[in-house]
Structure formats: C-alpha cells, structure tokens
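Re: weekly structure request thread

Next one in the queue (265 aa):
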Amino acid sequence: MPRSQRMVRQIGRLPSPLYRAYERRLLGTLSTSRMPRHVGVILDGNRRWARAFGEPAMTGHRRGADKIAEFLSWCEELDIELATLWMLSTDNLSRSSDELTDLLVIIEETIRDLAEVGRWRLRVVGRLELLPESVAAALREAQRATAGITDGLQVNVAVGYGGRHEIADAVRAALRERLANGEDLASVAECLDVEDIAAHLYTRGQPDPDLVIRTSGEQRLSGFLMWQSAHSEFYFCEAYWPEFRRVDFLRALRSYSERERRLGR
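Done, posted below.
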C-alpha cells in the first residue's frame, strides 16, 4: 500500500475504549469559543523515543513522520484553521551527514505525502537554500500543488527553519523594498517599525500562533516562531512526539481554554 494511503488510514484509527471515554470527557470541557485558530508544534523527541526501544534514530524519525497526518486530522476535527509544524531547524543541519541525509529523505517523502492527501494547503517556511536542491525543489512542488486548496486547514511545514534567521531575512527584505522605492538608509532607519518586519516574515498574512506545544518534556522554544509567539500560550508535554496522542492534544487545548489571555492589555 502506498505510504500516502497508509497515512489516510491512520487518520481513522481509533484509540482504546479507555482513552475514548477520557477523550469524550476532555472534549466536554472545551468551548468552541475558546479554541486556538493557530497551533504551532515543536515535534521533539523522535531520537529519544527510538533510543528507549533500542532502535536507531531513523526509526524514531519515521514514526514521528507517520504521526503528522494523524495530528492534522485532529486539528480538522476541532476546526483549527492553521498548524505550524517544526520539522527541521537550522541547528539540526549540523547533525552527522548520515543522519541528516536520511532525515531529509523522510521529510521530503512526508511533505510529498501530505500534499497527495489533497486536503491541506501547505506552506514551506525556512531557508530552503540551505537544503540540497532536490529536497528544496520537492518541497516547493508540494506547496505549489496544494496552492489551490482554499478551504479547511492550512499547514506550515518549517524545514531549515530558525527564528533568528527568519527575523534577519524579514529585516533584509524590508530594507531592500524601501531602498528599491528610492528611500535612503537614514530615512528608513528612522521609520522602520514592527509592521514593516511582520510584513516580510515567512508567515506573513497569517494569524500569529495562539498556542505553541512542545513535546518531549523540554521547556524552551529554541527559536520557534520567535517574533510571532510574543503573545502565544505555551504548553509543554512530557510525551515524545511519536507517542503524542489525541488525549495529549486535548489536554493542551483544555489548558489553553482555561487561561486568561490579556495579550499585554
């Protein structure tokens, strides 16, 4: 069976009766008026999950990749509009060549398969020029192939992504635009503001994340959506990404719904 079909079949896979009962309980605590529009997820813990079972890192990366379609189906069920998934950071590019080569193959296959599902509009965010050209081309093609999907869940796949790099790229793009319009650097420095930078982020035109989830128990953002997460709520989950369950997601949403979001006011 093709991998894309396996991914679709995973969407319908039911958890155990015990978890189904607990999920129903959690769902009953959620208010549709207090659901996040945009959820960002740091998919962390693939290698540690594999190590716990005495398996190589690639087993964890593949298991983590297979979790993505299932997660997106949960977002759909709950009418979440946008999900941003951090699949590869710029720091990850310094891993051993063998692991990185295998990981890029998995990422390329996964994003191609997500596009083939045909339900999600994909946007690739990150410095694709840092990736092998064949991988970058495949990711651009997946984005192009889903560009016509206008309804339902939108998905940002962050590959070769670093929050500091994104801000630096946005500032450069804003400066180039203003200089191309005939302004001099001194005048640009006087009036450049947050709106100018926001208009050139990888996620421009999209709402900022309401909720950012990190799996694996680590309690840091590591540069994920640094600019966009200024007013985000954070949720740190102990489960490694490959074992992240729908019930874990519902707990994150319950925690989010119980918070008072003042947004600096």
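Residues 145 and 200 are 23 Å apart (CA to CA). The first strand starts at residue 38 and ends at 42.
Next request, please.
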